[in-house]
Amino acid sequence: MLRDLPDGRERRQLELDLQIALRPALAAIEGSAAAEVGETIARARTLAEQVDRSDCLVPLMLGQWAFHLVRSEHSLALSIAKQIEQTSAARNDVAAKLQGRRAAGWTRCYLGQLIAARKLLDQSGRHRTFTAGLAEAPYPAMLCYLAVTLVHLGYIDQARSQLTKALAESRRMQHAYTQALVLLWANWTAMIIGFAEREQHAEELRAVSTDDLPTFLGYGTAFLGSSLTAVGEAEEEALLLTQGLTMLRATGTVLNTPSAYGPCGDACLTWPACRSAQLPPGSATENRNHRGESERSPIASAARRSDKSHR
Amino acid sequence: MNEAQLRQLHGDLISRIGDPNGAEQMYHQAMAIARSQSAKLFELRAATSLAPLWWEQGKKSAARDLLKPAYGWFTEGLDTPILRSQGKQTVRGRLASLATCIRLDPLNPHLRVGLSHTDSGRYLCGEYAVGYRSPGVQSVSRLSGIVSLARGFSWATWRDGKSQLRRGATVARNSELGSAAARLGHTRKIRAFAHQSAEGWLERMTGPAGRQSTKGYLISAVLAKVAFGA
């Protein structure tokens, strides 16, 4: 459709709208950290600057935040989350501001700043409506992020309560992406605190994800593998872990892979098949800068430029 | 947020391949990171990995002092498996079980046998290797089922398939029953289960994956006599 249009402002505006709509769909299908997603965001940002559409910035930045976060480029992700909050505050957009706060809170959790993370996530808790730029529903996602933060801090009952709410909310919504996200974290939490339902969560995650959500299918497969450790099925465990990690690797995902590598390392000691699993791109084999961010990231340089301009 | 967890896992892994000093270093790093993040759960996890190492090295009071405050901080989630098992293991179970470990083979100082407390609250009996493991020792250790403190028996290391795994599970049950009987003071049952367990081990030692029958039998026999008092 775009090919038939002559180059000009109108064509660029139309392309921008299409790229913005395409990003969450691509993120769901290919994975939030897939190279295509990064290229889509970079192209959309260029177009937004060319046609002076500042209203598109927040959804794009949310996509950019998710892209960097899933690639485990946490410092970049945090700087983008801060930008979202600042831009939204300047535009008096309360929903987007809370999304920025939620993004900052979750990123701080990954950075190990758990108390700050809890505070930010608590503050973003009331926001329930969808915002363009992300594939998941914000409220159940926030409940999961808060639960994970609370587990780390040692508040296990509170974390379980938040997760129960998140599971109920995501099932009520019947939104596959959100449900998969919640199940991922329910699974992770069950693994950390040793609950038997982790296998059930992993199976459910795989069922919800099918082939349409490859990142979650990868997580589900890897987590199912690690849950088999408890019943002594090291061979199957190793195979599923390897399979899951391969799926995650194909989507460019680095985030949370240590959770799968832990049991995988354990399985490697007892089952040699697991030793064929390689590190995913971006984890250790890729060149990283002093902040642990990938130098190969297609939009990393754009984000850095943007980061500087906001300082 | 994964860093403390990863250091602890790293420590667990290198501990299993026989580098207690390296493992201790990893656990210290894990605890330091967890403390700096206020990540109490991961501080406790690292502490519960380090304490048995110290216990084995004879630093018993240090091990207790390490675990008590880490566990004592928790005011909620005490019914969850991780804290329930940590609690039991902290005070008596885990450390007490390690205290019963016996060094078996004078020619192979890396191999030990003992009663181990699992997070299911039961005692398991089996031999496990510590320190460097040669392929032969590793094989014996695998065939006999490593008693992993937190994970129970790990039979599935055996490559020959599920039939052997099932046989392994039977042996595990017998040794477990023997251990349970030992706890309850049922001498006859101890003998019966320990004998079955020893027979099972012997049978597996003569299988295609192992050529360690003599050693396996020796271990089983000594286990039956010493560990169970049979």
Explained architecture:
The complex is a heterodimer of chains A (311) and B (230). By secondary structure, chain A is mainly alpha-helical. In chain A, 69% of the residues lie in helices and 0% in strands. Chain A has 14 helices and no strands. Chain A has helices spanning 9-30, 35-50, 57-70, 74-90, 94-110, 114-123, 138-153, 156-173, 176-193, 198-209, 214-227, 234-250, 257-270, 300-310. In chain A, helix 3 (57-70) runs antiparallel to helix 4 (74-90). Chain A is globular. Chain B has helices spanning 3-16, 20-37, 40-56, 60-72, 81-91, 93-99, 135-144, 162-184, 187-205, 213-227, and strands at residues 102-103, 111-117, 123-129, 146-148, 152-154. In chain B, strand 1 (102-103) and strand 2 form a beta hairpin. The longest helix of chain B has 23 residues, at 162-184. Chain B starts with a helix and ends with a helix. The model of chain B is unreliable at 88-173, 178-187 and 201-230 (pLDDT under 50).
Shape of chain B: globular
On the 0 to 100 scale, the average pLDDT of chain A is 76
Helix percent of chain A reads: 55-70%
How much is the average pLDDT of chain B? 56
Taking the alpha carbons of the first and last residues of chain B, their distance comes to 49 Å
- Principal-axes shape call of chain A: globular
Q: How much β-strand is present in the residues of chain A?
A: under 5%
Residue windows where pLDDT falls under 50 for at least 5 positions of chain A: 272-311
Q: Name the helix and strand elements of chain A from N-terminus to C-terminus, one letter apiece.
A: HHHHHHHHHHHHHH
Largest Cβ-defined interface = A-B, 40 and 40 residues
**Radius of gyration based on Cα positions of chain A:** 19 Å
Radius of gyration of chain B: 18 Å
Q: With helices defined by DSSP (H or I, 4 residues minimum), what is the helix count of chain A?
A: 14
